[in-house]
Amino acid sequence: MTSPIDSKLAELGITLPTPAPPLANYVPVVRTGNLLFVSGQVSVDGAGKIMTGKLGAGVDIDTGRQAARLCAINILAQVKAVVGDLDKVVRVVKLVAFVNSTPDFVDQAKVVNGCSDLFVEILGDKGRHARSAVGIAALPFDAAVEVDAIVEVA
Fold it and tell me: What band does 41 get if pLDDT is binned at 50, 70 and 90?
């Protein structure tokens, strides 16, 4: 039987990728008690193609939102790899999002809504969270967006 969250992912046409292994000296997820601390997930699709570029210098808000959405998908993939079933998610507690942007770009929050909106669409009220959206001069691999998360699980 398919879980409600897996059904929602299928309805949205989302296939969770196999989580990428770390590319530096860190672990993708640390679990302490019922909290998962998910390391920053960049805007990379299931084929390994990274959405790159700088908001305010060639990357528009809609493209940035799509990049942030990919970060949400990758966070969910990391969570599922640890707990096995996304229906064990109690709550997305906190996101910290970094947007590769020019100094004069001030719409980081609009970009990060691509991530936040997907969590709410998939998880309902369990996907509502506290959040920071930060503009930054550069990200690894020139990724457009990177998001880390704290997720409570059963």
Answer: very high
DSSP 74-124: HHHHHHHHHHS-GGGEEEEEEEEEEEEB-TT---HHHHHHHHHHHHHHHHG
User: Quick check: is 94 in a domain?
Assistant: yes
C-alpha distances (whole Å) from 29 to each of 13, 66, 123 are 25, 23, 20
Q: Is 2 within a domain?
A: no
80-91: per-residue pLDDT in tens?
999 999 999 999
Q: How far is CA 133 from CA 29, 42, 49, 98, 145, in A?
A: 21, 14, 23, 6, 10
**d(C-alpha 119, C-alpha 125), whole Å:** 9
In a domain, 116, yes or no: yes
The parent domain of residue 110 ranges over 39-153
Tell me the CATH number at 135: 3.30.1330.40
Q: What is the pTM of this model?
A: 0.97
Do the domain assignments include residue 138? yes
